[in-house]
Specification:
Elements: H1 6-15, H2 24-31, H3 35-40, H4 42-46, E1 51-52, E2 58-59, H5 69-84, E3 99-106, H6 109-118, E4 125-132, E5 151-158, H7 169-185, E6 190-192, E7 196-199, E8 202-214, E9 217-226, H8 245-248, H9 255-276, H10 280-287, E10 296-301, E11 304-313, E12 319-323, E13 326-330, E14 336-339
Parallel strand pairs: 3-4
Antiparallel strand pairs: 1-2, 4-5, 5-9, 6-7, 7-8, 8-9, 10-11, 10-14, 11-12, 12-13
Helix pairs in contact: 1-2, 5-9, 7-9, 7-10
Length: 343
């Protein structure tokens, strides 16, 4: 029996969103599949919170939290308003609210964002999706993107200083997203250089920054992927130690509020970044979350390996390694940074 397509799964979860029971036959008709096909997928539907009642109908206790552009927009308004009312002068730098769009199943939110920029669309803008069929991370790696489970967000921000002003940008994004996650989910977040978000030492999310120039205008596409509640049947495709918010202790998080927190925090942080660049304050905030600081590390690239002590980041956001022969800095590029395993 073939699996439900992402579109069929989203239709099924959408029909169950209210938390009320629905007959299998009605669900199947809504999704455009046979009742037998839907019943055969029940073990996987259970990973999405679906439960079967004694009468055979299906429901999701508490309902399904699908993304809602109106709810996200209202929560962004509230968060930015709080920023304007802050007591600390340095925090009263509200960002511009982006145009918020929510899609169902897409190839990649970064690709949608790029198409928007290339078509002359205005920025800032925030594009979210319930699932991606071609999600990607750094160095071209596939990003597992199950339906209605996580956050897949691409935020478009103008770079007033052109591409030259983008040094340290991905690290600024990391600080913003970490702050947003902690504010909503109350889960401690570490930042692994250059673009991973960690919880309990495992990967919770990632950041992919792409720069686009159209005419004389430069834009940054800030791709964010956060594991909120990863269905067990999709986790076999993840090739590294991972965690989601549910496992980390933030299991009751509303994805709409989480998305709003990230969008608002990115907007505010990028406003600061455009004014101040990757300054000493931002550098210190990033390093306070660095799990590799003063630990033995190895940086691997096509040029070979660099081993030594991690010493944080320099004023350009490059990682500093103290080796036996001196200090070396490495840029993001195609570098992979890991803790050095004991001999």
């Amino acid at each position: 029996m073939s699996a439900l397509t992402p579109e069929q799964l989203l239709l099924t979860l959408g029909r169950l969103a209210t938390g009320e029971p629905v007959a299998v036959e009605a669900l199947a008709e809504h999704a455009g599949v046979s009742p037998e096909a839907l019943s055969a997928m029940l073990p996987k539907l259970v990973d999405h919170g679906v439960r079967q009642r004694r009468d055979g109908s299906l429901r999701v206790p508490g309902g399904v939290c699908l993304l809602d552009a109106a709810r996200i927009s209202a929560a962004v308004d509230s968060t930015l308003a709080d920023t304007r009312d802050g007591d600390d002068l340095d925090t009263r730098i509200p960002g511009r609210k982006p145009d918020i769009q929510v899609f169902g199943i897409v190839g990649s939110t970064n690709d949608l964002a790029r198409a928007r920029v290339e078509a002359g669309g205005s920025s800032p803008a925030a594009i979210l999706a319930e699932a991606q069929t071609a999600g990607r991370g750094r160095r071209g790696r596939a990003w597992t993107s199950p339906v209605a489970a996580n956050i897949y967000l691409s935020q478009v921000e103008a770079l007033d200083g052109g591409l030259e002003g983008a040094a340290g940008l991905s690290l600024a994004v990391g600080v913003a997203v970490a702050d947003a996650l902690e504010a909503v989910a109350a889960v401690p977040i570490a930042l692994k250089w250059p673009n991973d978000l960690l919880a309990r030492g495992r990967k919770l999310g990632g950041i992919l920054v792409e720069l686009v120039t159209v005419g004389s205008a430069s834009h940054a596409i800030l791709g964010i992927g956060i594991n909120v509640r990863v269905p067990a049947y999709t986790s076999t495709g993840i090739d590294q130690a991972w965690i989601d918010l549910a496992q980390a202790g933030g299991g009751g998080v509303d994805r709409n509020l989480l998305a709003a927190s990230i969008i608002a925090q990115l907007s505010t942080e990028l406003t600061r970044f455009r004014r101040q660049g990757f300054d000493a304050n931002l550098r210190q905030r990033w390093q306070a979350r660095d799990p590799f600081l003063d630990r033995r590390v190895v940086a691997r690239s096509e040029q070979g390996e660099v081993r030594g002590w991690g010493r944080g980041i320099d004023e350009r956001g490059e990682f500093v390694i103290e080796t036996a022969s001196g200090t070396v800095t490495v840029g993001a590029g195609e570098v992979s940074l890991r803790l050095e395993e004991p001999a």
